[in-house]
């Protein structure tokens, strides 16, 4: 199963196999360094073993996932077993011997004729490395059914680690409800591009999507419709934990968002006592924003928030709870300040750090609070002031990173308030120098939000997220030195056969040379 192809007699005998190899230059997001070993080919066969770091359950879990993917499409057994020392054949996932510079999330991958060796300092790095390995294999490896081989990879040495710690995606479950399986499907897609945070927008004017035991009508009534008047839906706590656990298995941390004090009509409709006038408004199924507010002067508001944050925190292994805070146009600035002064300590009380849409950060001196920039300008005083105090910013400029913006005027889905966003628009900005007063050292990372006013099905998600999600993921992962639109569009184009195997219904942008 070993081939030194170029320059040997084998090259003449096996030109077709060599031609079918995926180019290591096509990996998305672009790795820090890729050194092809010209002419070297590695074959995965019915005899290939996956060895994982001896005694590490986490490494074993990464190995089992890789085996699961490979077994389905190759039909080979791929046994997973503890590595004894340094294996000389097969595929090894090792937690020893990686260069310290690759950090907690990076990896080194060496594909030779004899073996595939992946080294990382932590399991997250091994997982990231297996995503690179997937892209080195033929696209048919993504098939759900058994395919014919050969299963060959080009020889290569990859050293890789992320530019930013936070590579995020957001899905709005509130405007249209998306069931657990749809979220898992999105998680599968995200993990291929090394996304490591999934932000779930769980409550908005049109729907409340998570059971809160102490306020049961939030889900049963507040979750009973959605934009357009459909039946809506909500997650039980078991459903929600299933998502959190599934994400964790892909080294993705879920960040739950409960948007407040605005974007709260579903809660206000569910409990009359939360309204200043004691009257519950009707449920809403339109896409207006900025009309609802929790009642800042009522004590019950803070009992409600305390209960909700307590229950959400208990379901959240990650460090962050997102408290929204955007478009509070029905709350006066003084009331907004009063509200955040009461609510942010509640987040801390339950052991979490607050994240929010950027405007909330003007109310706090907590440098652990994370403002998520969602503006359309390249300077923002509230965010720059927070950076002066020491806060780190999550970058989601709406005219670049919003996956719900239309690609162009004829895109059948999406909105256009932040403009049209073609693939080059999504790709061509530098998160580390985009906002004045926000140097790279103050950037925590990037997130691509997908609001779902017009997004109802998995196919809709596919169409808006692909190919822009990989563009944002690359901005989060790859060193700026690799940033090159012409190279990126080629690499994106090479993803198409993979997406077809996955059943992913992407937008065939005319900007990309699709294969
Ligand atoms: C603005 S971005 C909103 C959302 C909408 C979105 C649609 C932000 C923090 N708020 O309520 O869904 O635009 O693009």
How would you characterize this protein structure?
It comes from Amycolatopsis cihanbeyliensis. One of its GO terms (biological process) is glycosaminoglycan metabolic process. This is beta-N-acetylhexosaminidase. This protein is an alpha/beta fold. It folds into two domains: 159 residues, Chitobiase, domain 2 (2-Layer Sandwich), CATH 3.30.379; 325 residues, Glycosidases (TIM Barrel, Alpha-Beta Barrel). The chain has 17 helices and 18 strands. It has an eight-stranded mixed β-sheet. Strands 9-10-13-14-15-16-17-18 form an eight-stranded parallel beta barrel, surrounded by seven helices. Strands 11-12 form a two-stranded antiparallel sheet. Helix 5 runs parallel beside helix 7. The protein is globular, with a radius of gyration of 24 Å. The chain starts with a strand and ends in a 13-residue tail after the last helix. 52% of the residues are buried. The N terminus is likely disordered. The site of ligand TNX has 10 residues, from loops.
């Amino acid at each position: 199963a070993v081939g030194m192809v170029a320059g040997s007699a084998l090259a003449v005998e096996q030109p077709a196999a060599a031609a079918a190899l995926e180019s290591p230059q096509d990996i998305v997001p672009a790795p820090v360094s890729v050194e092809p070993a010209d002419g070297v080919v590695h074959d995965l066969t019915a005899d290939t073993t996956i060895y994982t770091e001896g005694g590490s359950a986490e490494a074993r879990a990464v190995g089992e996932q890789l085996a699961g993917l490979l077994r389905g499409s190759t039909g080979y057994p791929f046994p997973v077993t503890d590595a004894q020392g340094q294996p000389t054949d097969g595929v090894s996932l090792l937690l020893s011997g990686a260069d310290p510079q690759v950090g907690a999330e990076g990896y080194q991958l060496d594909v030779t004729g004899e073996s595939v060796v992946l080294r990382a300092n932590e399991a997250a790095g091994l997982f990231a490395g297996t995503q690179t390995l997937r892209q080195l294999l033929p696209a048919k490896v993504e098939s759900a059914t058994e395919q014919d081989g050969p299963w060959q990879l080009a020889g290569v040495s990859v050293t890789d680690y992320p530019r930013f710690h936070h590579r995020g995606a957001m899905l709005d479950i509130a405007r249209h409800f998306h069931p657990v399986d749809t979220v898992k499907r999105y998680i599968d897609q995200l993990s291929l591009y090394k996304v490591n945070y999934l932000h779930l927008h769980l409550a908005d004017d049109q729907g409340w999507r998570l059971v809160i035991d102490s306020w049961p009508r939030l889900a049963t009534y507040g979750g009973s419709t959605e934009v357009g008047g459909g039946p809506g839906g909500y997650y039980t706590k078991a459903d929600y934990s299933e998502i959190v656990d599934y994400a964790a298995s892909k080294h993705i941390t879920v960040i739950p968002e409960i948007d407040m004090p605005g974007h709260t009509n579903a809660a206000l409709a569910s409990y009359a006592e939360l309204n200043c006038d004691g009257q519950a408004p009707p449920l809403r199924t339109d896409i207006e924003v900025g009309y609802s507010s929790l009642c800042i002067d009522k004590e019950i508001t803070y009992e409600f928030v305390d209960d909700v944050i307590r229950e959400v925190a208990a379901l959240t292994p990650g460090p962050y709870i997102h408290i929204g805070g955007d478009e509070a146009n029905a709350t006066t600035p003084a009331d907004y300040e009063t509200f955040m002064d009461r609510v942010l300590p509640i987040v801390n009380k339950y052991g979490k750090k607050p994240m929010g849409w950027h405007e909330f950060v003007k109310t706090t001196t907590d440098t652990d609070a994370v403002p998520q920039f969602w503006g359309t300008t390249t300077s923002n005083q509230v965010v720059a002031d927070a950076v002066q105090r020491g806060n780190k910013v999550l970058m989601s400029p709406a005219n670049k990173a919003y996956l719900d913006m239309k690609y162009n005027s004829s895109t059948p889905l999406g909105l256009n308030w932040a403009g049209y966003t073609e693939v080059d628009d999504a790709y061509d900005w530098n998160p580390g120098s985009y906002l004045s007063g926000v140097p790279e050292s103050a950037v925590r990372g990037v997130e691509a939000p997908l609001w779902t006013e017009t997004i109802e099905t998995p196919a809709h998600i596919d169409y808006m997220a692909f190919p822009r999600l990989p563009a944002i993921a690359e901005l989060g992962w790859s060193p700026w030195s690799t940033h090159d639109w012409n190279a990126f569009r080629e690499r994106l184009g090479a993803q198409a056969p993979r997406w077809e195997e996955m059943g992913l219904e992407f937008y065939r942008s005319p900007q990309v040379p699709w294969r």
